[in-house]
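User: Hi! I'm working on a homework problem where we have to compare a predicted structure to a textbook description. Could you give me the structure for the chain below?
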Amino acid sequence: MMILGIETATLAAGCAIGAHEGVLALVQTARGRRHAENLAPSIEFACRSAQVDLSEIGAVAVDIGPGLFTGLRVGMATAKAIAYALSVPMLGVSSLDLLAFPVRFSPRLIVAVIDARRGELYYAFYRHVPGGVQRIGDYLLGTPDDLESEVVATNEEVLMVGDGALRYSEHFESIPKVELGDQGLCHPSASALVQLAHAQALREEFDRPDAIEPIYLRRPDAEINWATRSTP
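Assistant: Happy to help. Predicted structure tokens:
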């Protein structure tokens, strides 16, 4: 089955096309918040690079967050539109799962961290298991101080990946047994999305487009700003 993966949860958005033989094409851009204007040309370029017609896509995978509100809306709207047009199923994968997947073979406790803005972080904890990585607990929203306290409390060797870990590195670099991933592990990857989605597709764990919902963890910034302005 040919899978189109759409990833727009952070500033580095992208798409990928892959099947049982692996990822055939990957396009990734880091042009700020210009997801809406970059995504369609990126998908077209990925199809040409993979020598695949869009009509050959058998499922659409999308990053469901948490992440940037505007980016998530653009990515999910595009993914659903394509899935409806092609009458194919969808697969939703969390941005934090996508961050942890490339370092799945690490024996250390893996912490995936995304910058949530407003001095907060989205994060989750993972461990290596045969065949991949397993999330421990829920997807969380907290301050750098909150995450620092949780990491210290584990008293384990920890690998932290994601733009949130790098932005607030001063909170984590001094913790014994903690290593921060480099820039190459900073953002969720559409390549990882296709790989994880393909494994789900083999298990026939598909979703209907109308059943896919984003993971927000908090209200959009516009709602927060309006509530703040309306407070006497």
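For your comparison, note the following. The chain has two domains: 3-94+188-228, 96-185. The mean pLDDT is 92. Good luck with the assignment!
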